[in-house]
Write a structure and sequence with these properties.
Layout lengths: L1 E4 L2 E9 L17 E9 L4 E2 L3 E3 L10 E12 L2 E11 L10 E9 L4 E2 L3 E2 L7 E9 L2 E8 L3 E6 H8 L6 E5 L8 E5 L6
Antiparallel strand pairs: 1-2, 2-3, 3-4, 3-5, 6-7, 7-8, 8-9, 8-10, 11-12, 12-13, 14-15
């Protein structure tokens, strides 16, 4: 996906490590690791940066089974951030459907720092098809619960609260109103 931030164009993507994989394993996502990455190009100075890997951190897994990657670039207090969303199949078994959880990853583009992923969903419902969309300077996260229930969250409010030094935790309520889901995040785990 391409993002423009001032004179810099970012290309973010998810790639699979297929080196050394057997042919019969190429379509088995449980046997091939995933990595999120981005490259940038400043079209004014004509400078291209090398690929930067976005570290995928998980509470219990060293290499979680990552699916459904999407991203957006946004500015908070004059700083540029790459916000990525993805789902993780928690038991790494595609035959079970209630364990696909939604995450949000934040990368500070200026210094290359990755923040610990925000675990958005913690339920027995499968999340899928997450998308980040910038509408008039606000970034919205949309996804599907159980493959058909549309969900929406204003991620800009979440990011502003995350970087507000006035409190050690915060609550964000989903924008769709009908669900009233609240995401409680302990900031001490995410910022140092």
């Amino acid at each position: 996906k391409l993002h423009v931030d001032g004179t810099t164009v970012y290309c973010s993507y998810m790639k699979r490590d297929v080196e050394g994989a057997k042919e019969e394993d190429l379509l088995d996502f449980t046997k091939i690791g995933a990595k999120m990455a981005y490259v940038s190009y400043d079209y004014e100075s004509q400078q291209k940066q090398e690929e930067t890997l976005v570290k995928i951190t998980h509470d219990t897994k060293e290499n979680p089974l990552v699916m459904d990657y999407n991203s957006a670039v946004t500015r908070i207090d004059g700083n540029s951030y790459l916000v990525s969303t993805y789902t993780v199949d928690e038991d790494e078994n595609f035959n079970t459907g209630e364990d696909r959880e939604l995450y949000l990853e934040i990368s500070y583009l200026t210094n290359g720092r990755n923040y610990y992923p925000l675990h958005i969903s913690r339920d027995s419902i499968s999340q899928s098809a997450p998308r980040l969309t910038d509408i008039g300077g606000a970034v919205y996260l949309t996804w599907l619960d159980n493959g058909y229930v549309f969900r929406l969250m204003n991620v800009t409010h979440l990011l502003e609260a995350l970087f507000d030094t006035g409190s050690s935790s915060f609550t964000v309520t989903a924008d769709d109103g009908a669900t009233g889901e609240t995401v409680l995040i302990d900031k001490s785990k995410y910022l140092d």
